[in-house]
Write the C-alpha cells for this entry.
Amino acid sequence: MDFGGVKALDGVNLRLEPGQILAVIGPNGAGKTTIFNCISGIYKPTRGRILHRGGQIQGLKPHQIARRRIARTFQNIELFRHMTTMDNLLLGRHLHMKAGVLAGISLFSRLAPAAREEVAHRRRVEEIIDFLDLQSARNQFVVNLPYGTRKVVELGRALAMEPEILLLDEPTAGMNLEEKQDMMIWIKDIQEEFKVSMILIEHDMRIVADLSDMVVALNYGLKIAEGRPEEVQSHPEVLRAYLGEEGS
C-alpha cells in the first residue's frame, strides 16, 4: 500500500486460519491499521491480493466486504454518540434486514413482516447485551457512557453483524486493568462460542500472549517476524523495533 512515495505496507502477507486469533503488533506507524483499512475496503491496495474463501476482495466497497461477514472495530471509537446502546447495536443488524418499505406499511399489526423482523433483530441484540453485560447501558445514550463501556458497545455492534471474521483494532486501548480483563474474556468467548476468526491489533504484549494463536510483527510496513507469541516476543528484530531493546 503506497501513499505517494511512502510504502505503508511492503510485501506483507498474512494467513488467518478458521477459528484462529492472529495478533498484529508493531510500533506506531508500522502499518497495522492500514492492513485493516485494506481488508475492510476503506483503502484499495496498490498491489497484491486479499483473498476470502478463495475469492479476491481487494477493491470491494466497505458494505460489500461487510456482506461477506467481515466486521471490525476501530482504534478511535466510531459509534453514533447521540443514539442509545440498543440503537447502535441494531445498526449492526442492517445487513440482515430484509423487509422493505411496502412490508412495513401495516405497522400497527404485530404480524406485519417488518414488525416480525424487528422483533427478531431486537431479540438478537438483547442476547448480545446479555453476553457483554451491557444491561445497564441498554437505553443510555452512548455519549453519556464511560469510555470503557463505549469500547464494549462497539464490540457488540460488530458482533451484531454475525461476523465470520472480526478485525479488532486495539480493543483494550484506554481501558483500566479490570476492563481489559473483561474484554479478554469476551474475546476468548467470542472465539470459542461463536466460532469467529479474529485479527487483533494490540500494544499490550500480555494480552497478545494470552489471546493470540499466532503473531505477526511489523515495522515500517515490513513483516519482521511471525510465529507463536513466545517466539515473536523474543525475536531480536521485534525487541529492537517494538520493545526498544536488544535483549530479552
The longest helix spans residues 113-131. The beta strands are 2-3, 6-7, 21-25, 51-52, 55-56, 70-72, 165-169, 197-201, 214-219, 222-227.
